Amino acid sequence: MNPTIELLKSHRSVRKFTEQKIPHELLLELVRAGQAAATSSHVQAYSVIHVTDPANREAIAELAGGQGYVASASDFLVFCADMKRPTEASERTGANVVRGMTEQMLVASVDTALMAQNVAVAAESEGLGICYIGGIRNNPQAISDLLHLPEHVFPVFGMCLGYPAQTPDLKPRLPVEAILKTDRYDADDKQVAAFDDTMQQYYRQRSGGNKESDWSRNLTPLFDTKLRPHMRDFLIERGFEMK
User: Fold this and answer.
1) What are the residue boundaries of the Nitroreductase domain, all occurrences included (predicted)?
2) Which of 18, 162, 209, 243 has the most beta carbons within 10 angstroms of its beta carbon?
3) Is the whole model's pTM more than 0.85, yes or no?
4) pLDDT tens for residues 9-44?
5) Could you confirm whether domain 3-168+229-237 is CATH 3.40.50.800?
């Protein structure tokens, strides 16, 4: 297997970091690597906020659900979907810009995710650990206020970066046969059932027998309630009207 594929397959979320700081020039290189990701029509509909103020880091850690590693990691980035820059650039050419389209929100969200994943892979190639923080969407308005995000910009997720002080076990993924379809979609519940067995064994081993769960049961909190119901109104307030 070539080193790039091995690196990608070795990804794990790191939540404990040493006190060693990431050199600033290396951080810049990681962001430049992020910018090299594919982007729809060269729109580059993202901005990244490097949060350095300790008080802001502590506040975000709490707003994201009490995730202390947001404050303890060497660096913390907030990846934002940004339709302000491209629409205003177009407007300056004299275009009659239409804002608030659902497609604009999708483009910005996808661009942001692709860019962030490039940053993650680049960081791991340098021996760093990373952890995505989707919890910033728990309180997106408070995060937006803290970071002075303007209209047509919203925070998608954060990312902790630092030198790892732990090596977590690799978490199994669904078998490729469950997600790779040929010519048409087909459901195969046997693959999911087999994966539930795999995950049950994983949780038992990782917890010393103290956690009895599997993949399907772990999904329950995501789907048996209205998860982050505030997001639709928040996005509309941000100018993403989903027209």
Assistant:
1) 9-163
2) 162
3) yes
4) 999 999 999 999 999 999 999 999 999 999 999 999
5) no
